[in-house]
Amino acid sequence: MPDRTTLRRLSALSRAELTLLVRNRSALFGALLMPLLMVGFLLTLGDTLGLGDGNLSVAAVIGTSAIGMVLLMAVYSTLIPAYVGRREERVLKRLRTGEATDAEILTGTAVPAVLLALIQCAVLIGAGSAHPSLSAPARPDLLIIGVVLGMLMMVLMAIVTSAFTRTVESAQITALPLFLIAMMTSGMITQLDTLPDTVADIFRIMPFTPVMDLVRAGWLDAGGGDVTRALLLALAWTALAGYAVRRWFRWDPRQ
């Protein structure tokens, strides 16, 4: 349990980061509106994309995919330029000379984006539960685990990606590989049970797929024995991302 001094430092770092996020209109737009625009895109082209071709309804696919959009855009894509900007401005290096630990510095930077994402997920789940084709989460425990693990994984992935990103402007490019892989392989735009078994099996071990499997299992009570595998895979990918942070994250400016 963090002591009061740690919480006080985290609070100060988080408030400063929130102020910077609010002042950055493009970052705020990406965190708040882009997930909603992507959901609107899926709603408009749901039939064209064949979202309802599998075992789940179109509403079920879009409802759970909306949570994935929040994790990818409000957390992952928002935090990469944040870490890069603080690194290149030597903010991270100066903070390390103070009392804050490395974990506190990295966590404080992530807190505002994570809180915004949590609020968005809660709103999406509440609105989705009121939809005629959906219902309240069948397994709230699994849904919470999926969202929390997904956020932790995306924070760590953002930190790792920032290590290979030279400028804030190039963050949009370096974020694309994981973003596209997550979109294509996690069942957000194509239900995995409609794909050939070999392809589906490969997609199921990709980083973001177990997170979405847990979200669908928690909200829609879908998964059965696959829930355990999804949980173990999500934990494994999160642990691997944590190792990558320790191995490759850069505190000094790259320019």
UniProtKB/TrEMBL annotation:
Tell me how this protein sits in the membrane.
Multi-pass membrane protein
As for subcellular location, the record says: Membrane
Q: Which UniProt keywords apply?
A: Antibiotic resistance, Membrane, Transmembrane, Transmembrane helix
- Where in this chain does the record put each ABC-2 type transporter transmembrane domain? 10-218
Record bears the keyword DNA damage: no
Does Transmembrane show up as a keyword for this record? yes
Query: What residue ranges are annotated as transmembrane?
Result: 27-46, 58-84, 105-130, 142-164, 171-189, 227-245
Give the main location. membrane
Entry-linked InterPro entries: ABC-2_transporter, ABC2_TM, ABC_2_transport
Q: What is this protein called?
A: ABC transporter permease
